[in-house]
Write a structure and sequence with these properties.
alpha+beta, 8-stranded mixed beta sheet, about 20% helix, transferase
Amino acid sequence: MQPMINPKYPGLSVRVADEGFAAYVWGSDFSFEVSAYAQAQSEQAVAKWPLHHITPYRKCYGIDPEEFSSYRDAADSAVFMAYLDDEPVGHVVVSTNWNGYAHIDELAVHAPARRHGVAKALLDVAQFWSRKKKLPGIMLETQNNNLGACRLYERCGYVVGGIDHLRYRGIDPTTAEVAIFWYRLFNDELAREAGV
C-alpha cells in the first residue's frame, strides 16, 4: 500500500507498520487526561451527554507491541503507522471481527502529535482497508472517560451501537468507567453511491 498523504497536514502520512513499530510504541506517550465521566446516550450528540466532573488524572493504556505482532502481514488484519515529518506518531490495528465488521483493536496517537489530524488519518486508512475487503462497516470500543475519542468518532460518522455498564466491573467493582461501542456503517453510503 502506498503511503496516504493528508492534504490538510502535508507532513502527515500513513503506511503499513514496519520493523520500527515496537521501538515507536515503547518511546511514545499515549496517556490522556480524564476530567469527567459521561453518561453516554445512543441517540444524543456527545456534547449533550451529562457529565460527572472529577479531579483530573492521567490515564494510560498499557500498549504491548507484541500483542498485535501476528496482525501484520495477515489476510484478515493490518497494522498501520502514522508519521509526521517522517517521525512515527500514531497507529491503528484493524482486523475482521467474528460478526463481519472490521474491528479497530487499537488506535493510539503520541500525545505531542495530537490535534494534527493523525487519528482521523488513521481512521480513514482503516475505513479504506475495510471497504477494500467489502466489509459492511467498522466497529470499535472506547470508554465514557475518553471524551476526546468519543467526539472524534462522532465527527468521523460513527454512531453509538451499544453501552456496557458492567464491562470493567470485573477489574474494579466500583469503577464509573463504561464501555461505549461505536459503529461506522457503510451500507447506507454504498446505496447512495449506487443511486439506490
